Amino acid sequence: MRFDSKNLLAFVIPVGLILVWQALSSLGQLAPEVLPAPTAVVAAGWRLALSGELWANIGVSAWRAGVGFLIGGGIGFALGLANGLSKLSERLTDPTIQMVRTIPHLAMIPLVILWFGIDETAKVFLVALGVSFPIYLNTLHGVRTVDAQLVEMGRAYGMGNRELFFRVVLPGALPSIFVGLRYALGIMWLTLIVAETISASSGLGYMAMNAREFMLVDVVVLSILIYALLGKLADSIARWLERATLSWHPAYLAH
Amino acid sequence: MTARSLTAHGLAAFSPVAQRQSGGATRLGQGGTGATVTLRGLSKSFGVKPVLRNVDLHIPAGQFVAVVGKSGCGKSTLLRTILGLETPTAGDVRVADAAPNVQAARIMFQEPRLLPWARVIDNVVVGVRDRSNQKAARAAAQSALDEVGLGDRGGDWPSALSGGQKQRVALARALVSHPRLLALDEPLGALDALTRIEMQGLVERIWQEQGFTAVLVTHDVSEALALADRVVLIEDGAIALDLAVDLPRPRRRGSPELARLEGIILDQLFKTGDRVAAEASGDALQEAYA
After folding, report:
1. Domain ABC transmembrane type-1: where (chain A) (predicted)?
2. Terminus of chain B with fewer CB atoms < 10 Å: N or C?
3. What's the CATH code of the domain at B54?
4. Model confidence over A188-226: pLDDT tens digits?
5. Closest among B260, B251, B268 to B64, alpha carbons compared
């Protein structure tokens, strides 16, 4: 990625906000128990990084997010493909999926705690549940809207089912699948934060809630900033993947 | 509908030409690579709606046949049935004395239908019959691209090509496997007039070189006459006119002989329609006076 003046423009507002925040804190306009200065947040980060507590919590949260995402995304992707390709499968499963989808998955938290307690399974289950629906819907939509003329061309040129899938259907569905992927990544972090905040004994959400108990506002702010960074990181990876696999798409033809 | 009697009329009126046309096909002397196509009593219905009614047609090997007709007359269905993309409701289709098989023939559609996510050369590879040997497939694709004059564009994405260039890639894809039958489903209909004339020349040249049997479906009568050995007019799902075009190639646009044949076809196409319209307006006048 090139860092020319256009890319630097994106940093003007965040850097400006931090400078104003620091200035207000230094002038005593912002009470440290309401919002500690950026330097205090950095100091808290340094302290927790040295003790290893920060890395352990980030690791636990990332593990939960990743495993939940793989399970939920895998199920959503598989069902989306199956229902996009087979009318029978769609008639059998789609109405049930659409019904379950209307339940806000976070409303399941009390039930999930009763089922799984507050250990890893509960968090992974909630993330997987939340992530599976956007992946499912967008994969299904992608497969459904593959250009029927291209499918007919493939058949007329003697492609079998397997070749038709890999050469025509999957590449055609990919832009839509990526929309689902990026949407799912947002839901993944949201679900994890809520689940960890309500019931956990480790992870970033637990670190923030624990700090609140002891009025460590700097650690609370630090946790929020780390969530933002992780979310941005996941989104950047998805965008990079998108650019790498959709280089044929006129929208990504920027050389 | 009097399609059967019109067929008889059409053949009777131009029988000297019709006899010459079989000689015209053998004159090419390339029948060895083309496939004969024979339709016997072919009918096709979608639900209760008949689209083709009892069509008999024999296309000798290497002949270039144009199928013309108004939209919805069944000419595309005829083509798709010859290719095996549709199964006939009744009757029999034989391509090179065998049942139609998607692998034996190749089709060019009205749209290029290139895979946007595959480079130009990989789009041509789709037309290679045995794609398991990648190296040979790519070599064949490259020579097909050279043939249509796009040999240097193999590495581009289809979105970087103009409409005419995309259709030339589609032609290369159709021809890369050296089909014995090439079906053309209005492939030039969406192109601008100048590109269309250029593409007609390209199709004619490659047909003369390779000697495949060609079936061109078009609604452009002058295009049919510029390219075909024989023009078949379809009306209401039946053959209404079967006209041999025994003129030397390359044909000069606007020659009196082409104009005469075009007049015959257009008369056949619009004659019945005009009479119905005249009768309808006559009825309206009588009602007005009554």
Report:
1. 54-235
2. C
3. 3.40.50.300
4. 999 998 888 887 888 999 999 999 899 899 999 999 999
5. B251
